[in-house]
Specification:
Number of helices: 1
Helix content: 25-40%
Number of domains: 2
Strand order of the largest sheet: 1-2-3-4
Length: 108
């Protein structure tokens, strides 16, 4: 393959990936997900209206110990993703948003 053909193929792949990412990010934002650090616009603002009435007391659904860290949880597709430090290891884990049930975790 000549260099110009390789460059053209690379441009096509880059264009396809860019369009795909735009589609994925757009669908995540339109569904009300929290797909990245600090939210859909990375500004710490949840794009949802406030409830018309707040409950007198909140009901805790579940609680887990995750270790220390500075990352915010990411909520998408019925899962909560958490990145934190457990001992000397950085870990990432996914939990069911409704029950808190651990779905998977990974550490080096």
């Amino acid at each position: 393959m000549r260099n110009s053909t390789k460059e053209w193929a690379l441009c096509v792949v880059c264009a396809f990936v860019s369009l795909w990412l735009t589609s994925v990010i757009g669908s995540a934002q339109s569904s009300g997900a929290w797909p990245q650090w600090r939210g859909p616009a990375r500004d710490g603002v949840a794009p949802a209206p406030a409830p018309a009435a707040w409950p007198v007391a909140l009901t805790k659904k579940w609680k887990i110990a995750i270790g220390s860290g500075y990352a915010t949880p990411i909520v998408a597709d019925g899962r909560v993703y958490v990145h934190a430090r457990t001992g000397e290891n950085e870990t990432i884990a996914a939990y069911d948003v409704a029950t808190g049930k651990p779905l998977w975790s990974d550490a080096p």
